[in-house]
Amino acid sequence: MTSNEIVYKLASSSWDQAEFDAMQKVIKSGNFTMGQEVREFERQFASFFGSKFAVMSNSGSSANLLAMAAIRYSKKFGRDDRDEVIVPAVSWSTTYYPITQLGYKLRFVDVDLNSLNAAANAIKAAINNRTAGIFAVNLLGNPSDLEAISKLANEAGIFLLEDNCESMGAKIGTKFSGTFGQIGTFSSFFSHHISTMEGGLSVTDDEELAQLMISLRAHGWTRELPEMNHVHDKTGEKFDDLFRFVLPGYNLRPLELSGAIGIEQLRKLPAINVQRRTNAEFFRSRIDLENVLTQQEFGESSWFGFSLILEGELSGRRSELVSHLTSKGIESRPIVAGNFTKNPVMKHLEHAALEPLPNADKIHEDGLFVGNSQEDLTGEILLLESALREFTEAP
Question: Is 192 a catalytic site residue?
Fold first, then answer.
């Protein structure tokens, strides 16, 4: 093996001829802008996850932005004197940015080292008379305690959003993560469970929120809305109704290519997650090492990747481990963005006073993860086990 050869990748393509045929169909049609393929993918996606509506956008980050903007302009959930949104301290940047961009403040809570998600009791302790809502995150495929968190939101009369971008197909009982709150978001970026080049989806059972996201996705106009709707009824003057702007929207539309690919990918999702869970079972049977903490499953994880947190005498040696894994051809990354409050961008983000976040700090300093995919990773996991044992047992 050369020094540049990657044996255990973070992700691999799940495309085959079906996706290329879907793209060719779009190419032959000559219609590349958002159209019937996107609408059909939205319909099938909503049906698959048991939601009434799905709105596709150009990324999971945009799905988060649409979700937060819909809440902001909703008659039922819009901002009043409550301006804080509770978030876990470990997540990706675009969980947080839409919250402050829409005029809310971030209230960070610590995460649990075993699940990597914010525990319900930590969220409960953070709810106060300034709390407008909760933006829960299901990290690395693992659902948060969504039943308990949903109950807390209902009792407090606040909204619940789910960033489910890393956990497509995860469940608690028979209910999919991403469907417990007012809106749940999903990503279909290359390294995620399904891939549509770039892409994201927001699902909801609330018609007003769905229509708000449809308007906000394309300039804040009424063009794609029915004559009578929850945003702004049309006048019946078709020419004027095509160019009536009612919300300060965006341009987050996906391409027809992504919609067509998504239809094919969604068919594969059950089998993809069966293999991901099979890989996880093997990972957990082999990676059981002293001073290496791995993620503990809550509900039924869809196992985005496999986390490793160094403890005890291995604490503080993450950079050494990353170098060692790299030398063996094993890709790794930090656990999302670690403790996000340690990033310099925080000076630009409105947030409540920060309290101690010891578990997020631990993840920030000593956490990393390796990949999972729709392929059988038996050989790769054995390679990882060998590399970890060599590292942990070295004098």
Answer: yes
